[in-house]
Amino acid sequence: MRLQTHLVVREDILALYGFTTADELRLFETLIGVTGIGPKLACAILSRVTTDALTLAITGENAELLATVPGVGKKTAARLILELRGKLVPIAAVAPTPGSLLDTEVVAALRSLGYTAAEAHGAVARLPRDLGDAAVEDRVVAALRDLAEP
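Predicted structure:
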C-alpha cells in the first residue's frame, strides 16, 4: 500500500496526515492554504465530500454542498469558493454536458427525497459510467441503490 502524507509542524505539535491518493493530498494542501481552514477542517471536508464533488462544487460555486460539512458555515463556504476559484485543476466534467445536466437533476431528485447535498453528490459521483445518457429515472434508481448499500 502506498500512502501520501503531509507533515504539519507547529510550535506545540507535529501532526502527520495521510491520504490514499495524490489528488487528495494536493486538495488538502490547497484547502489549508485558505484563510480560516486548518488541517482538521480540511480533513473533515475531504472525509465528507469526494475530491471530484468538491472540485465541481467549487468551480460550480455550490456553497450549499460545502456548508453541509460540520464546521463549515455559509461564510466559510463562500470564502472557500472565492479563494479557490481558478486554483483547482478542473476535472473533465466541468463543462456542461448532457451527463452533467442529468446529474444535476438526479441530485435535485435525491434532495427532494430527503438526502443531504453531500450524500446526493456522493451518490452521483459513484454512478457507474456505463449509464451514459440513461434517463434521469434510471440514474435516480441507481443512486438510491448506492445509498442503500451499507
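Summary: The longest strand covers residues 4-9.
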